[in-house]
Amino acid sequence: MNEPGRTRRSGAEEPERAATRSGGRRARRGQAAGEARADAGARADPATRADAATRADAAGRADAAARADAGGRALRRGAVSGAVPPRRSALRARSFLGTLKALDALSAAGAQVSVRVADIDSGEAVLVGDDHLTLPVAGLGVVPLLIEVAAQIEAGTLDPLQIIERTAVDPVTVGGLWHQLKAPALPVSDLAVLAAAASDATAANALLARVGLDAVRARVEQIGLVKTALLDGFRDTRGPDDAPHVALASTGELAALFAALVNAHVVSPAVSAQVSEWLSLNQDLALVGASTALDPFAHDDDRHGLLFVNKTGRADGIRAEAGVIAGPRAGAAYALIVCFDDLSVAHRVRAHEAFRALGLDLMEYVC
Q1: Looking at residue 10, what DSSP letter applies?
Q2: What gap in Å lies between CA 163 and CA 280, rounded to an integer?
Q3: Residue 255 near residue 331 (C-beta atoms within 8 A)
Q4: For residue range 105-125, what is the model confidence (pLDDT) as tens digits?
Q5: Which pTM does this prediction carry?
């Protein structure tokens, strides 16, 4: 894992002291040069001795003043151009130590870990660890499905008010609410809300049956994802003839995908906005979101200006999450996947603690 370098002093304080010291040294060197020239003038012809001393002294003072002023101008240019890092950058550099410690402990215990955090504005990587690996992500596979649903709605080939019967798909109870509701049918737009907000397996399967798995795969390729794939719908039991996982992805692609969604670069601004709106309703704030102190049931318009858009994936021995968090100081796109031996509650808790450590460090980064 790569961690940004740490600084002992704030980005604003250290360059200012350095420039001040540099200006002082240059001023003293200029004064010494002037004195040397004055001494040389004193040993010259008596007729020109006084004039030489005067010129040397004036030159020394001018040289010292010019160098001191150059140091001041360098400091001012640094403050204006950004060469002098702001105090906030130094604070960011000290972040994610808790995440690193938690993920190192998981790796030492035999878990497979992949993580990426990137600044939402610059795209600069903040934390990277095996972000190229393709790993199972369970319910995170709903994200490319929602992108395809929104794209078909925008294209006019899918009516958001089209009614879909629950009996159109095989019963599944691994997650969600629809299988507990009395309503036997719902419109496409409501199913998208259930799939995004409640990780509803039945709703996701109904959407997948309507738009088609081939269309989702083609959309994934069209938006440039090569390590992300929706393999299958949700099942209560997976047999030998079924795909081994719902979906696969890498944290590198997931973090980039969420950043592109929030920045309106996926398919079209309208599609990006629609998918981001659906995902902003996600009620699973038990992993990274646990550190945000947001209301799981109403956090799409936080009074403190904290933006949080995320999606989680859960299966036996799999925990995955990707999203975007933005606060008053910065914004970050993140993704974390942990594949572990789900042998006991303690193993599960240890995996969850790593996500919460990431949440704490993200909050320090953006707030």
Answers
A1: -
A2: 24
A3: no
A4: 999 999 999 999 999 999 999
A5: 0.75
